[in-house]
Amino acid sequence: xxxxxxxxxxTPKLSADAKISYVNQKVENRPSMSGWGDNVMLNLVxxxxxxxxxELSSYYDADGNVRRPVSTYGNNPxxxxxxxxxxxxxxxxYGVTSLNYNVTDWMKVMLRGGTDxxxxxxxxxxxxxxPFNGSVLNDLTYTSQESNFDFxxxxxxxxxxxxxxxxxxxxxxxxxxxxxxxxQGSGYSFP
Length: 191
Known about the structure:
Elements: E1 2-9, E2 14-28, H1 40-46, H2 53-57, H3 77-83, E3 85-102, E4 107-126, E5 136-158, E6 164-186
């Protein structure tokens, strides 16, 4: 990842600032989070304390079924780590630029625009013996962009030594665009 920032006082009354950042991530086997049944840490914490971890480490029983903890929802953490697969890559570019203009010593105008653009590709599968999903294949690309454009006029004027007035007037335009492309399917057989 990297970030570049440039700022300049263009004239005594006008200044500009611009910043752009790029982030690239590539991850294999990102752990499941939240209340998902394949969340390894959630399953370990939720397991009865007398669960023999050695029994779970051989995650297939004699009949070829996945040996699970007592919970009917959580998966065997050893199975999750060794038999499930996912990979994702994320490219993100975001930036902002602004102009500030001092109209007078008591009035300023700020104009600003920024965007955040992300493309994330996800590939994952679970095998047909997965205890509650069966075989599922996902190959998806998520694209999202949020852009914001705003302005702010600030006025702060001393009317006397005991009285001043301050006024802010502004507005914002926000645009969002999200797309998902790819495929999801079930009933596959994986080696």
